[in-house]
Structures are given as C-alpha cells and as structure tokens.
Amino acid sequence: MKFFLDTADVGEIKKALAWGVLDGVTTNPSLVAKTGRRFEDVRAEILSLVTGPVSLEVTRMDLDGMMSQAHELRALGPQVVVKLPLTREGIAACKACSDAGIPTNVTLCFSANQALLAAKAGATYISPFVGRLDDISMDGMKLIEDIVTIYRNYNFRTQVLVASTRSPVHILQAARLGAHVSTIPFAVMDQLFNHPLTDLGNEKFLKDWAKVPGQAG
Ligand code: E4P
Fold it and tell me: Alpha-carbon distance 27 to 20, whole Å?
C-alpha cells in the first residue's frame, strides 16, 4: 500500500520525506487555506520536493473551468494529479482528462456507486472519505471493502485511495482490505511508528550494551 501525506504543509512533507516512506501527497482547498500561503507558492514548493504523485484540486465547478484548471495544473509537473469532485461535471472532466492522458483523483466519494462512476470515467484514483462517514455514524471502511470488491469484480484499473483517515486503525484496515493507497495526516503517520515495547526494548538493549566491556560511555 502506498502512503500519501494529506497536507499542504511543506514542513510536514519534509519530515515525512526524511523517513523515506512517502510515496506522494494529497492537498485540498481547506489544507491550502490552513497554511495561510498563496496556492501558487505552496504548490510550487511541494512540487520541488515530491517526485511521486501530488494531487492538486480544481476549484471551478463548471466543466470548461475544470478542464482549463486541469491543463494549467498538469503543466506544473509530471507528478501532478488533477483532483476533481464527484459531481456530474467532475466525472465528465475525469473522462476528458483520462482521454487526454491527464491523471486524476476523484474526490468527495461517499458511495460505491459514485466509485463505480469514477472508474467508468477512467479515474486514476478514487478517494472515498472514511473519517467523514464515521463522523455521521456510517462505516467508512465498509465502503472501502465494497469498492475494492467491485473494482476487482470488473478489473477496473482505478486505484482506491483511502482518504479522510483519522487514526492508525484506519491505515491497518485499509491495508487488510488491499486498498492501493492511504492518504494520511502527518500526526497519524507519526503515530504509526509508536509501540511501547519498541521503546522499552530499545532502552534495555542500550542499557545492556553499556555493560559490554569496552562499550561503556
Ligand atoms: C484527501 O484527499 C481529502 O481531501 C482529505 O483526506 C479529507 O480529510 P478530512 O475529512 O479529514 O478533511
């Protein structure tokens, strides 16, 4: 399973890159707004750091506007993936991008039928939002299970990108289900490292190592 970082914060991206396990980045308008910086500056810096797929979202909701933004974003770099909303216009734009060889990430997916539409339109990635479904007492991971099954049934090439992840358990469940990608907030990616037995074990190894003749100090 690929790990994307769900952020527009360049500092977080640098830290995750240093861990050596980062495959790509996803952004959205809310994440960009959180940085307080201009989108032009943020995306340029992200693209200078990340060679893997970087999802940049369109903000026009009409088909012509989406397509003009799609071309503009894609021209910024070969790693740019155009993020499109799961609306009628977004799906039409996805088909047009697919025909033009522009990779896409169809976002704001909350049902398996929506995921089926995105796959039929040739989406590179579908982003089902598990956390936001959990927030309204629905089972976000059940949606991932359904989409993975449906895509396998018909050999769709669209990759399932688990979005709106909120905890390490989401990442574990996504991997168990065979999702292709999880996009993960920095704090959650950081939590993946943690285990008290790792800390205790390391502490003991270092204490014992200090007892080895010639190694103290
Ligand atoms: C990623 O592509 C999505 O925009 C993001 O995961 C949404 O996460 P949220 O529901 O925590 O805002």
Answer: 20
Q: What is the DSSP string of 159-191?
A: EEEEBS--SHHHHHHHHHHT-SEEEE-HHHHHH
What DSSP line would sit under 86-114, residue for residue? SSHHHHHHHHHHHHHT--EEEEEE-SHHH
Check residue 54 and give left, alpha or beta (phi > 0: left; psi -120 to 50: alpha): beta
Locate 94 and state its tokens.
């996805």
pTM: 0.96
Give the CA distances from residue 52 to residues 5, 17, 55, 60, in Å, rounded to whole numbers and listed in that order: 11, 11, 10, 25
Instruction: Summarize pLDDT for 116-134 with one digit per residue, the tens.
Output: 999 999 999 999 999 999 9
Q: Which residue from 86, 171, 66, 173 is spatially nearest to 128, judged by alpha carbons?
A: 86
Is-contact 60 93, C-beta < 8 A? no
Per the CB < 8 A criterion, the answer to whether 91 and 97 are in contact is no
Residue among 2, 14, 34, 83 flagged as catalytic: 83
Give the pLDDT confidence of 84-106 residue by residue, as tens digits.
999 999 999 999 999 999 999 99
Query: Which of 129, 170, 186 gets mutated to test ligand 1 (max ligand atoms within 8 A of its CB)?
Result: 129
Residues in the chain: 217
83 is catalytic: yes
